[in-house]
Amino acid sequence: MEVKIGVQHAPREVVLETNETVDEVERQVSEAVQNKGTLSIDDVRGRKILVPGDKIAYVEIGGGVSGQVGFRS
User: Fold this and answer.
1) What residue numbers bound the domain in which 52 lies?
2) Please, which residues have CB within 8 angstroms of residue 41's CB and are 6 or more apart in sequence?
3) pLDDT band at residue 41, thresholds of 50, 70 and 90?
4) Taking 60 as the threshold, does the pLDDT of residue 36 lie above it?
5) Does 69 reside within a domain?
6) Which of 5, 13, 19, 57 has the most crowded Cβ, counting Cβ within 10 A?
7) Which residues pair with 59 in a beta bridge?
8) What does the pLDDT look like over 61-72, one tens digit per residue?
9) What's the total number of domains in the chain?
C-alpha cells in the first residue's frame, strides 16, 4: 500500500510502499501526532522512515492505482 506524508517546511512529500494495513498506519500516525512523538514506518524495501509527529502536515493512505493506463467509458 502506498503512503504519502507531507512534512511542514519540506518542498517534497515522503512517498513509500508498506505492507502494513490502513488501520496500522492510521494508528501510528494518530499516536505520533497526539503525543508529539515520532512516526516510524517500515517500507517494503526494508527501510525505516521516521518523521517527527509535530511536523506532519498530512498523510495520504492507500493507492496502488499508479501505473494504470487506458480510457474509461
Assistant:
1) 2-62
2) 3, 16, 18, 20, 25, 28, 48, 49
3) very high
4) yes
5) no
6) 5
7) 5
8) 986 555 556 666
9) 1
Residue 48 lies inside a defined structural domain of this protein: yes
Task: Report pTM.
Answer: 0.80
Q: Is 18 helix (H, G, I), strand (E, B) or coil?
A: coil
Average pLDDT over residues 48-64: 91
Phi, psi (5° rounding) for residue 33? Answer: -70, -45
Cβ atoms of 52 and 4 within 8 Å: the answer is no
Domain-located, residue 16: yes
- Domain assignment present for residue 8? The answer is yes
Average pLDDT, the chain: 89
